[in-house]
Amino acid sequence: MAPHTMQASFPCLTACRACRGPVAATVVLHPMLSIARRAGNKEMRVVMLGLDAAGKTTILYKLHIGEVLTTVPTIGFNVEKVQYKNVMFTVWDVGGQEKLRPLWRHYFNNTDGLIFVVDSQDKDRLGRAGQEFRSIINDPLMKNSAILVFANKQDMRGCASPAEVCEALGMTELRSRRWHVQSAVAIRGDGLYEGLDWLANTVKSRPAG
To answer: pTM to 2 decimals?
Structure first.
């Protein structure tokens, strides 16, 4: 059965002077989504953030269509539906360039989970990644969000280990938060479904309301 499409308008969050109105995006609605809702699946809104070139868009489309796409730096956002273990994830992949980071919080409202992606090979920017991470999780709108960190590019020689990524982000200080750090190689899909498994189990075990 062919998917259905609709046109939706979203506020332009790139602060482009040439833009004077909303931007249009095509949202693909697959028939399985309505079937999933009737089957009682839980829905989870997830925002995926991280510095530029961390691998966010690669992760999104590896999960969405099972393929690695040729990507360019995301200006604005990508949004896709991903179903896993009776949870329908709506994943917002937001551009990570420095000029876009102040706009991240526009995506925080009603967010159930944060996926923060770290380029484990880029050790020079681990400190910066930690600063941005703490800014996100300390925002009042994100106080109840589950936190999944992908320590990406673990196949690269000399990369930071998941434990080093955990330390750089200050994860052990988050004693009252639900969090998980997952080793990942996005281009191969390694670790991605293990991370989703943790998110799915977390949202399913969350008390209703």
So the answer is: 0.81
